[in-house]
Amino acid sequence: MKHADRKRLLTWYDQHKRRLPWRSGCDPYAVWVSEIMLQQTQIATALPYFTRWMDRFPTVQSLGQASENDVLQCWQGLGYYGRCRTMLETARHIVASGFPESKEAWQALPGVGPYTSGAIASITLGQRCAAVDGNVERVFARLTACESSGGLMTRAAWKWAESVADFDRPGDWNQALMELGALICTPRQAKCAHCPVARSCVAKMSGRVSEFPRPKPKPPIEDLSQLVWVPYHEGRFGLRQIVEGRWWRGMWEFPREPSNEIGTIALRNSIGKCGLHHLGQLRHTVTHHRITLEAYVALTERRSPNLVWFPPQELSTLPMPAPQRRIFDLARRSLDVLLRGSS
């Protein structure tokens, strides 16, 4: 990239960058939290979670002292809950050893990969290093008309980004590239007339902007069907904590089993002779799985010792996956009708 282009891009960034809370100063804790939250998540979605998180855990020390239940509850709804648990682990390491002082030291921490370590080190430490996310990949692919896709394109983007990293303003430079991809060089309709580096863009000059980046092969979607039932007995709801090896580990859920013969037997055994009322069907997507949930509320004869029984007001304090929270709302409305009818 030519010196004039670099200067234009940084000038554009200074004038047009979004005012984001983690950009006020170079607090490594705030930058780290934002980068973890923004993995596979849009800024508009992450912003309210970031604000709530920083109110609840304003320092790495307050996060390191928190319980897993507390952090999962604060993260609830943002998805990818493994990131949240890893953040807690990393926070405790930082409390014990201090904040890392280089990209390499950041990358040695749990849950911190090449992009995150590069972003944090360049922004908070002024280290000259690359940080390549999806926005930077797209900017690179169009500037160079890169014909590769998937992993080959990603590796080429990293090599390019390392070669053009700025010496004087490395953090601003990385953020400028990302901001250019987020605001101007957007996936569907690039705003080339407003791009500060359009005159050097090979795809723009050849009229082929929409052809880049080349699409990567999409993984197949797997369809799953599951049964979920809401056990209810004398004012309390039965839940279980999700065990290691299942989605949403450590969070709380109503019993959930595959929609097959084994799952049906488990459902019948749980309710005995009491009532089972259909709540409806919900759909939810997790990574490359499309899940159909058949939901019921079960009026049980007794409180199963395999579940933990909570009054309804306590469920608001429990970390629960989004589909489970929706099912609870359906169950509560259904129970209002059922219990009024039986009184």
List the helices and strands and how they pair.
Blueprint: H1 3-16, H2 28-37, H3 43-56, H4 60-64, H5 68-75, H6 81-97, H7 103-107, H8 114-124, H9 134-144, H10 150-164, H11 170-183, H12 202-205, E1 222-233, E2 236-241, E3 252-253, E4 256-258, H13 261-271, E5 276-286, E6 289-299, E7 308-310, H14 322-342
Helix pairs in contact: 1-11, 2-3, 2-8, 5-6, 8-11, 9-10, 9-11
Describe this structure in a few short sentences.
The longest helix is centred in the C-terminal third of the chain and has 21 residues, at 322-342. The protein has 14 helices and 7 strands.
Structure, explained:
By secondary structure, the chain is an alpha+beta fold. 47% of the residues lie in helices and 14% in strands. The chain has 14 helices and seven strands. It has helices at residues 3-16, 28-37, 43-56, 60-64, 68-75, 81-97, 103-107, 114-124, 134-144, 150-164, 170-183, 202-205, 261-271, 322-342, and strands at residues 222-233, 236-241, 252-253, 256-258, 276-286, 289-299, 308-310. Strands 1, 2, 3, 4, 5, 6 and 7 form a seven-stranded mixed beta sheet that branches. A hairpin with a 2-residue loop joins strand 1 and strand 2. Helix 2 runs antiparallel to helix 8 (114-124) and helix 5 (68-75) packs across helix 6. The N and C termini lie far apart (76 Å).
